[in-house]
Structures are given as structure tokens and as C-alpha cells.
């Protein structure tokens, strides 16, 4: 809005107000007196422009975005800790119980037992918040001595961790809710309820999926992968714990079924021509990263995985000059997805 209020424009206007006949050349007393003031006013206009943008939801950021949309009741999701299944064995691979609250480590991340699921199986919560705590599996070491323990393993992700919600995701959620308001148990109300549960990264609602008064809500986690059974149950308990009785968020008479999306693995093979100075493994790592970014952006928004798009991602990878023989699940055609399927990246085999 104030792009034309530059140092040069301000100084020129100020000099134009100086009476004719006075020395206004650069280096003169008048010039040197006005130039600092013009510089300060130019900076003021820059800050005015920034502050004005902080007043509106489409341009605000950080705490200002939180305050701008506070009237709507939408609050930024904070970072949460991952929860995983821990399995504990004594001698002869016999399952054994451990104390609630006992602590274990895997690499440099610590976990604490918070709930017994069954004999030798416990819900383990990461002691640090964020995605990273749910991305490691394998053998754990006890931080404190546990009598009789021979082996401890993290075997399954129950509830993924999540980083603090970004400005972009919060803004998208705000505009979605504002433009498609949930009210009186309409379709968007179920979507809003599902997204209120920490750990849910997206949802899709199917009205009348199994006859009158039935609703199906399909969810994914914060990593855009099929939700775990634990997360599904949390959403089910929040929306409709007792089908049709109205004891959750859903109105009386609505029978709600919450389910996890189904993952469809996409296996990719191709032969690539490398640029000088690039190693094949570097290409694979970069391509994997690009695939993950694309996958997360297309969950619940596409009905197929495009052969052409995957080819473009491969060709856009640094170090790839060309490719041949690109196959998705062994074929050169697009891979279809059903309404409840989300793409997952399977094996990626690149050759030279």
C-alpha cells in the first residue's frame, strides 16, 4: 500500500518545499538536514505496511494471526507427543509387565510407559513433543533398572506426534470453517469435530453411507497417513460414543462410524541419467523427499496418482538430466485411488 513512499520520493517532496534560491544539492546543509528525516519516515511507512498486514487473516502471521481469528473460536493446535506401543520381554521371550511411569530410551529420545494395553504391551509416550518421537522403532534401553527385563521394543505407532500448527495450516483451517460453516450437524460440522481432535490431520465425511441417519468419517493422522486404531477410537468417542444416542457431538439419531483411511502403496521404478558430480543415492534421497511433499499435498484431493506428475517430480530432482522406463506399480498408466484411499510411497528403485 505504501510502496511508493520510498526514501527518494519522500526526500524529493521535502526538498520541493524548500524556498527557491537556497542550496538543496547533495551535501548542502538543507539536504543533509532533511535526508535523515526522510530515511526515518521511509522506515515508518514500511512498518505501517507490515502492521496493516498483521490485522487481516490472509496476511497475518504468528501471534497476530492467532489474535486476528480468535473471535471464531479456532485456536492454533500446539505440538503434541507421539504415543507408541512398547513390548517387553523377560527370559525365553516371555511377555512381562513393567511399572507404569518407567522410562526407556531409543537413540537420544526418551519414552515413558503411561498405560497397560495387555500383558507385556504398553502405551509409551515420548517425553518430547513433535513428529520426531513417532518416527523411530526398535530396541529400547531402560533408563532405570527393571528387574527381569531382557528386551524392550517400540513396535507400532498409536498416536503420531505433531509439531505446532503452522500459520499456513491454521489459516487454511480458519478459511475452511468460515466459508463452509458447521452448523446443526451438517456435513461440515462432522469435519470440524474430527479436526478438533489432536492428532487428526484430515478427514472426509460421507453422509448416508449406510442408509438414513448414518454418517461415516474417514480420518488420517498429522503425517497424512491412515490413522491408528487408537486415534480412530478417540474421534469416535468424541463425535458419537454411543451410536445414535447423542452423547457426543453428533445430534440424537445420527449413527456415526469413524474409520481410518486406507493406504495404497505406490512402488516406483525408473532409469535415470545423472548429471556430473551426483551420486545415485543422493538422487534417491532427494526424490523421496519430493514424493513425500507431493503425497501430503494430495491426500483426499485426488482420485489417482498421475504418471506424468511423478515423472515431473523425478525430472525436477537436482542431478537428474533425464529418465526412461518410469513405472508405477509395474505399469505406465495412472494409479487409481478409491474415495477412502490415500497414496503411500512404497519402494523407489532408481537405476542408471
From TrEMBL:
Signal peptide range: none
Residue intervals of the Baseplate J-like C-terminal domain: 266-350
Domain Baseplate J-like central, chain residue ranges per copy: 183-260
Family: Belongs to the Mu gp47/PBSX XkdT family.
PANTHER family reported in the protein's UniProt record: PHAGE-LIKE ELEMENT PBSX PROTEIN XKDT (PTHR37829), PROTEIN JAYE-RELATED (PTHR37829:SF3)
Record protein name field: Baseplate J protein
Organism the protein comes from: Paenibacillus wynnii
Amino acid at each position: 500500500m505504501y510502496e511508493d513512499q520510498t526514501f527518494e520520493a519522500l526526500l524529493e517532496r521535502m526538498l520541493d518545499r524548500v524556498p527557491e534560491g537556497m542550496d538543496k544539492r547533495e551535501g548542502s546543509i538543507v539536504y543533509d538536514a532533511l535526508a535523515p528525516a526522510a530515511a526515518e519516515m521511509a522506515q515508518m511507512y514500511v512498518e505501517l505496511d507490515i502492521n496493516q498486514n498483521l490485522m487481516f487473516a490472509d496476511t497475518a502471521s504468528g501471534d497476530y494471526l492467532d489474535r486476528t481469528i480468535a473471535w471464531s473460536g479456532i485456536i492454533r493446535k500446539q505440538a503434541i507427543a507421539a504415543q507408541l506401543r512398547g513390548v517387553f520381554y523377560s527370559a525365553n521371550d516371555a511377555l512381562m509387565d513393567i511399572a507404569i511411569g518407567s522410562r526407556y530410551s531409543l537413540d537420544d529420545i526418551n519414552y515413558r510407559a503411561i498405560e497397560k494395553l495387555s500383558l507385556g504391551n504398553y502405551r509409551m509416550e515420548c517425553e518430547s513433543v513433535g513428529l520426531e518421537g513417532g518416527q523411530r522403532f526398535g530396541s529400547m534401553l531402560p533408563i532405570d533398572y527393571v528387574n527381569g527385563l531382557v528386551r524392550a521394543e517400540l513396535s507400532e505407532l498409536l498416536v503420531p506426534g505433531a509439531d505446532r500448527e503452522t500459520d499456513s495450516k491454521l489459516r487454511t483451517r480458519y478459511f475452511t470453517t468460515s466459508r463452509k460453516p458447521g452448523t446443526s450437524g451438517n456435513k461440515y460440522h462432522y469435519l470440524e469435530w474430527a479436526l478438533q481432535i489432536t492428532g487428526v490431520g484430515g478427514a472426509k465425511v460421507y453422509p448416508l453411507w449406510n442408509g438414513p441417519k448414518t454418517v461415516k468419517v474417514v480420518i488420517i493422522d498429522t503425517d497424512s497417513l491412515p490413522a491408528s486404531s487408537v486415534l480412530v477410537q478417540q474421534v469416535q468417542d468424541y463425535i458419537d460414543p454411543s451410536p445414535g444416542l447423542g452423547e457426543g457431538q453428533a445430534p440424537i439419531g445420527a449413527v456415526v462410524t469413524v474409520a481410518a483411511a486406507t493406504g495404497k502403496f505406490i512402488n516406483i521404478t525408473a532409469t535415470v541419467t545423472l548429471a556430473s558430480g551426483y551420486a545415485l543415492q543422493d538422487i534417491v534421497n532427494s526424490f523421496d523427499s519430493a514424493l513425500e511433499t507431493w503425497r501430503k499435498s494430495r491426500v483426499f484431493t485426488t482420485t489417482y496418482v498421475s504418471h506424468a506428475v511423478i515423472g515431473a517430480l523425478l525430472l525436477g530432482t537436482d542431478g537428474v538430466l533425464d529418465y526412461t522406463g518410469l513405472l508405477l506399480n509395474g505399469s505406465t498408466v495412472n494409479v487409481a485411488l478409491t474415495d477412502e484411499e490415500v497414496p503411500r510411497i512404497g519402494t523407489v528403485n532408481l537405476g542408471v
